[in-house]
Amino acid sequence: MWRRYLTTRISASGYSTLTRPRTSKWWDHVCPAPKDPITSVTEAFLADTSPHKINLGVGAYRDDEGKPVVLQCVRDAETKIAGSDFLESVSSAVSSRLVEESVKLVYGRDSDVIKEERFAGVQALSGTGACRLFAEFQKRSHPESRIYMPDPTWSNHHNIWSDAKVPERTFHYYNSDSKGLNFAALMDDVKNAPDGSFFLLHPCAHNPTGVDPNEEQWREISYLFKVKNHFPFFDMAYQGFASGDLDRDALSIRIFLEDGHLLACAQSFAKNMGLYGHRVGCLSILCNDKKQAIAVRSQLQNIARAMYSSPPVHGILLVSTILSDPNMKALWTKEVKAMANRIRTIRTTLKGSLEQLGSSLNWEHITNQAGMFCLSGLTPEQVDRLAREFHVYMTLDGRISMAGVTTGNVSYLADAVHEVTKFGHQA
Ligand SMILES: Cc1ncc(COP(=O)(O)O)c(C=O)c1O
């Protein structure tokens, strides 16, 4: 009957009405989605033809010539895996090696949770994918729960938990006067949250502020979490970038571990291995025992299966090759330190240049903050002037991606920042 109906609709021209273009209302109600703040910065930068232009928006590492870097350890791993039989799918041995080696980086090589296999770990689509998996798992296992996020936090955290239908609350984090941590207000919010709440924490190199609690403060936070029975979810996107030392940057997590918390951690190799395009990450959730870990892992695999099945193979092979080869891992450790050092040095140069120009404002926070980002204190109007008059691009909140600052552009940048802040104030 359907066939007869369709045949009668063949037109005189010989074209079926089914293949003739016609307007349809399927997507008429769809409006453009709001632009991601970082994408907008990149677009404006690319459209600018000035030879002086500087992109301080994107949070990916650049060398001192402003170029993206392929680490030597990655080149070595490429050579080692060349010709591997990996096109079909990654073997479970390789993917579990990635997880085993990743969790050692955060919990410590000799950690009991690893020896006792008390963790549910899965490879994930970089840090974003690991956060998304956890948000979904949180919704399914604790449907009534909320997530407490620092104010401010990486803008995509809001999208991720909102897409998982987990309601969000914020907790105090940044003090815009001191451009440091608002520790007292943070502790108050932790204390006042209902017992057993989920909290998102940045273990190091906080994005966008570059402000981290010190060791003593982490100990106090961990203690209060214990008292309140809160669950800490650590989003580790920049391990190594704060101090240059992978273990030191995991100190916050190790403190929580020592205090006997169950916790979860999202890891990304986008920045610290320069593998942004390969989307390699890991999600691990600590459990009471091995049996619980197996159950939790099976649920995570189940979520991933329906979302994207499995992640691309090449990046997993690269990371697992580097982490399981002592020489390559040692080289990687050195290369991470070098990247962190370059950023630290350029922070000092930028602060020094502003002081030399006679700026009356306090720029101490440029060197007090750590990691890839500096929340400069520039107002949206000053950021706008920097783009329009000086071809310097950053997000409207005044966040500078320090990786975009180089020996070649730092004095131009300092001049521009001095010019737009001369008669003004900081946010
Ligand atoms: C705090 C934080 N978490 C997670 C991510 C996600 O990183 P990726 O998905 O590129 O690994 C980022 C990236 O900017 C970030 O800043």
Automatic annotation (TrEMBL):
Residues 52-417 form the Aminotransferase class I/classII large domain. The keyword rRNA processing does not apply. It catalyses: L-aspartate + 2-oxoglutarate = oxaloacetate + L-glutamate. It is an enzyme of class 2 (transferase). It holds the Pfam family Aminotran_1_2. One of its GO terms (molecular function) is pyridoxal phosphate binding. GO terms for cellular component: mitochondrion. PROSITE patterns: AA_TRANSFER_CLASS_1. Its EC number is 2.6.1.1. The keyword Transferase applies. In eukaryotes there are cytoplasmic, mitochondrial and chloroplastic isozymes. Homodimer. PANTHER family: ASPARTATE AMINOTRANSFERASE. Important for the metabolism of amino acids and Krebs-cycle related organic acids. In plants, it is involved in nitrogen metabolism and in aspects of carbon and energy metabolism. This is Aspartate aminotransferase. The gene is ASP1_2.
